[in-house]
Amino acid sequence: MAFPQKNPQCSPDQLFQTHSETQGLEVAQESKALEEACLSSHPEMPGNLKEAPDAGIPSTSESAQSFCSSSIVTTVSSSIKYGEGPTSKEKEDSTLEVDPDPNNVPIEALDENVSSLVNFLLLKYRMKEVITKEDMLKVISKEYEDHFVEVFQRASERMEIVFGLDVIDIDPFNQCYSIFIKMGLTYDGMLHCKVGVPKTGILILILGAVFVKGNSATEQDIWDVLSVMGLYYEKKHYIFGDIRELITKHFVEEEYLKYQKVDNSDPAQFKYLWGPRAHAETTKMKVLHFLAKVRGTVPQYFPSQYEEALEDEKERAREKVMAITMDSCSHCEF
């Protein structure tokens, strides 16, 4: 079932319109601020995301702030920060040479180069252009070219966690990369041909919150999570815009979320569930893999959610087999 984005047709000039240098710098700096806001909140897993026995992390109820920190917004770069060893992205990037010791690089200078590269990657994403390592090296200060792997890794992590985008090596031999929306989703929230940034990261954050809250999260649950990122109900964000409208209108209209009244609530309260497009394009298992990835573990580490996600995978497989069988029967000659 196809779910096309409900955006009006853009002209080429509108589609490829870019930020000014100042605007671009603000976007990149804001993405860093979003990461830091959540990294500073001492991540723990939420109460609903129960772990295996002896996991060493509390399974009692935790705040929405803890969920934001650990389950979605905690960047994989925390493993670099605390010296926990290489990430999966490091292992996959076999075309990139190992950097000199990043601890010898001033953090401020490294952050400036990461911010510049994030802005460049966002521009390339909007223009739907392939990116080469040579292109990226032109963005990084010459004195930090030897630290390209570190800069690239951190920029990729920020693209993934904040904007919901994957930077994929599509041609290892020629070191070419392309940017795709994460987890099979097909919507980036860049509406009406306006200059802006992808908002898929916010969508993934909400889908994750709904899943770990038992497949139904109240408005308060969602806003408690988003507030950790500086995203508020009554306040427009200067990068992401009107978050309330984005969620209650666009995410709902695009059928990623359902917005329903809580039964027997007085005064009326409302809750969010996954919509049909979320169920069609991604899975609970993909969400759980993402949550596990940012915790540096595996989905089986969270048995309750893993069993639910596994049952969802089995049900999808049964439905697929049934659909194939029915299609084959419809072509049979009796």
Automatic annotation (TrEMBL):
Region (Disordered): 1-22, 37-64
Domain MAGE intervals: 110-309
Gene3D superfamilies linked to this entry: MAGE homology domain, winged helix WH1 motif, MAGE homology domain, winged helix WH2 motif
Coiled coil start-end: none
Superkingdom of origin: Eukaryota
InterPro entries xref list: MAGE (IPR037445), MAGE_N (IPR021072), MAGE_WH1 (IPR041898), MAGE_WH2 (IPR041899), MHD_dom (IPR002190)
Family matches, as Pfam families: MAGE (PF01454), MAGE_N (PF12440)
PANTHER family: MELANOMA-ASSOCIATED ANTIGEN B16, MELANOMA-ASSOCIATED ANTIGEN MAGE ANTIGEN
Name by which UniProt lists this protein: MAGE domain-containing protein
Organism this protein belongs to: Pipistrellus nathusii (Nathusius' pipistrelle)
